[in-house]
């Protein structure tokens, strides 16, 4: 992913017009390039696991699902999950995805987890 420049860092968010701040969200370094995120960020080195979650709601029926994947700091797969939620809002689906991902990671002993979500409202809620 790094070699093909597909790691979605804050610099890439800014380049695509999705954010206005390219600083590292963990250590506040001015630019979060791919190499900084995986090699140079001293604060990131203490993170044991990374969690990528997403919730989805079908517009017509409000039926929702949540899912995610967890990886160690080297990118090795730890576990994945998906869950049918029934009827709920987009924010609720996103928050359920985060909760359903954290529970098994904590049970496996991962107490330092970087949560990646595409929903700013969910990030502010936690």
UniProtKB/TrEMBL annotation:
SUPFAM superfamilies: Ribonuclease H-like (SSF53098). It comes from the Eukaryota. Pfam families: RVT_3 (PF13456). InterPro entries: RNase_H-like, RNase_H-like_dom_plant, RNaseH-like_sf, RNaseH_domain, RNaseH_sf. GO terms for molecular function: nucleic acid binding; RNA-DNA hybrid ribonuclease activity. Residues 53-121 form the RNase H type-1 domain. This is RNase H type-1 domain-containing protein. It comes from Gossypium klotzschianum.
